[in-house]
Amino acid sequence: MTDELFVVEDLTVTLPTSRGPVDVVKDVSFTVGRDDTLGIVGESGSGKSMTALAVLGLLPPGARTSGSVRLDGRELLGQSEGELRSVRGNAISMVFQDPLSSLNPYYTVGLQIEEGYRAHRGGSKRAARQVAIEAMERVRIPDAARRVDDYPHQFSGGQRQRIMIAMALCCSPSLLIADEPTTALDVTVQAQILELLAELQTQTGTGLIFITHDLAVISSIARRVLVMCAGDPVEYGTAEQVFSDPRHEYTRTLLDAVPRIDDEVML
Amino acid sequence: MTLLRVRDLSKQFVIRGQGGLLARKASFTAVDQVSFDVALGETLAIVGESGSGKSTTARIAARLLDPTSGSVEFEGEDISRATGKDLARFRNDVQVVFQDPFSSLNPRYTVERIVTAPLTYQGIAPKGGRRAFTRELMERVGLNPDHSQRYPAQFSGGQAQRIGIARALAVNPKLVICDEAVSALDVSIQAQVIKLLMRLQRESGFSYIFIAHDLAVVRQLSHRVAVMSKGRIVELGSRDQVFGEPRDEYTKTLLAAVPRINPEWDRRRRLSKGRS
Ligand SMILES: Nc1ncnc2c1ncn2[C@@H]1O[C@H](COP(=O)(O)OP(=O)(O)OP(=O)(O)O)[C@@H](O)[C@H]1O
Ligand SMILES: Nc1ncnc2c1ncn2[C@@H]1O[C@H](COP(=O)(O)OP(=O)(O)OP(=O)(O)O)[C@@H](O)[C@H]1O
Ligand SMILES: [Mg+2]
Ligand SMILES: [Mg+2]
């Protein structure tokens, strides 16, 4: 299809190590449409986060990439830092896997949400503040009007994750990449956040890339699924195909290992 | 035998009150009258709402944060009074695997230095040398031992989490507090790490406080479960009671919200596996 929102073709990421260059992402291809959700699952260390960082031009120093990454037909790979900066947070938002190290510890969370919003939408400080408070309320941070002036370390792990999501929501991006955005959330708050993301998608047509180890969540939200193992894309198909008829041995191993709430217990 | 005894623990954080710059200071109760015991060789799981005070409770139990009121006893001694040698022993016996893996690892240290630092402080030379010791631990948590000279930033989220686990296990502790310690691991490595934790419990009598949102994992490895909501323990009971006959409304809501793989897809996969 030519009208896909986001197209990744043969993306390879090579990182320098003390033992020479290593391909941590090998020939990965996928597409994401408008109001569409791609789930990326796989082994820990298989290159899921590196795929996301490559798209945003945020790879570690010395990294090399090849292939093609296009948003609305525009090539992103190999763009200048200035061009990429205008894409980040604007057309593409990212919820990072490690919220504590991606939030600035010296600024209040409110200021960080406001800055992102104003860079994108402009408007007065006061209006941005109102937007920040509302976004925090939407992600169920209790007492948001007061907490907007608190610093990242004053929040719980799951609250920090939700603040990252609040930031992304304010920018109504064309593409949202969420890397393990709900691992620190209890199942009821998680369900609310997933609903919120779905709402955003229907309202603004945002394409979503959802990276997680939680296969149950993927089965409920993703239309297509990419399975990665040791940098290789081992399986790519509709959620129904991957879950009901996995073609690759690794996918089967993974699905067999999912702990289920009604499993036999060993202890 | 009771290893850890927590009584009426409360923690209030000083926060700004409503009303801008001139606002008075107010306080917020993050942990509210929490009591529990952890027996030797036991796993107590703490589950519950995001923001309900689980990590705060864990940090107080490890003496990384002072409570506003209440007490924590470890092996019968009040931990707030420990000094000198006793404190050093407590710091060894109680290890924490933190919820945010990267921010709890020194970015300027190699894995080998991170994992062996506590031993070095104590003047203990690991058998077979530091390199071999680190390599063996890395292997046990499913990390490539050839990466022992790498720095934390050179690892993925789940790999960093396992460095935290290796560090906690290195000093042969009595109690390991695991705060979302396996949440960034894929299910097969997660199963491997859980088996390792359970084997250490059988062999060396480790106790665990296991904080997690994944209720299926909690059910696999806990003896007792505490459910927290808004700073309080709303339910505390045996694993089978809490999962089988939950009494509290919040616990029931939580259990009902556990996401499952589409059952129809799951069924078809099992059938197709039988065929091939
Ligand atoms: N700066 C670096 N230099 C060299 N190798 C690195 C660097 N950062 C990460 N790696 C390696 O690249 C591989 C891919 O990492 P990535 O973070 O993409 O994994 P992931 O699939 O997101 O894993 P997880 O599920 O654990 O978060 C890993 O094996 C990791 O060890
Ligand atoms: N330094 C602080 N100042 C003010 N409030 C704080 C501070 N640290 C934590 N809190 C608040 O205390 C409450 C409990 O936080 P805690 O980190 O213990 O939650 P948690 O149960 O571990 O949540 P999660 O599952 O999201 O990690 C939260 O509402 C949090 O915002
Ligand atoms: Mg990752
Ligand atoms: Mg926590």
Automatic annotation (TrEMBL), chain A:
Membrane topology label: Peripheral membrane protein
UniProt GO MF annotations: ATP binding; ATP hydrolysis activity
Keyword Cell membrane: yes
Name of a matching Pfam family: ABC_tran
GO CC annotation terms, alphabetical: plasma membrane
Keyword annotations of the record: ATP-binding, Cell membrane, Membrane, Nucleotide-binding, Transport
PROSITE patterns for the chain: ABC_TRANSPORTER_1, ABC_TRANSPORTER_2
Location (main, coarse): membrane
Superkingdom per UniProt: Bacteria
SUPFAM superfamilies xref list: P-loop containing nucleoside triphosphate hydrolases
Compartments it resides in: Cell membrane
Keyword Coiled coil on entry: no
A single BP term in Gene Ontology: peptide transport
InterPro entries: AAA+_ATPase, ABC_Ni/Peptide_Import, ABC_transporter-like_ATP-bd, ABC_transporter-like_CS, Oligopep_ABC_C, P-loop_NTPase
Domain ABC transporter: 6-255
PANTHER family per UniProt: DIPEPTIDE TRANSPORT ATP-BINDING PROTEIN DPPD (PTHR43297:SF2), OLIGOPEPTIDE TRANSPORT ATP-BINDING PROTEIN APPD (PTHR43297)
Family classification: Belongs to the ABC transporter superfamily.
Protein name, entry field: Peptide/nickel transport system ATP-binding protein
Organism: Kribbella caucasensis
From TrEMBL, chain B:
GO molecular function, one term: ATP binding
Keyword terms, alphabetized: ATP-binding, Nucleotide-binding, Transport
KW Calcium (keyword) present: no
PROSITE patterns: ABC_TRANSPORTER_1, ABC_TRANSPORTER_2
Domain of life: Bacteria
The keyword Nucleotide-binding is annotated on this UniProt entry: yes
GO biological process, one term: peptide transport
Domain ABC transporter stretches: 4-255
Similarity comment: family membership: Belongs to the ABC transporter superfamily.
Protein name: Peptide/nickel transport system ATP-binding protein
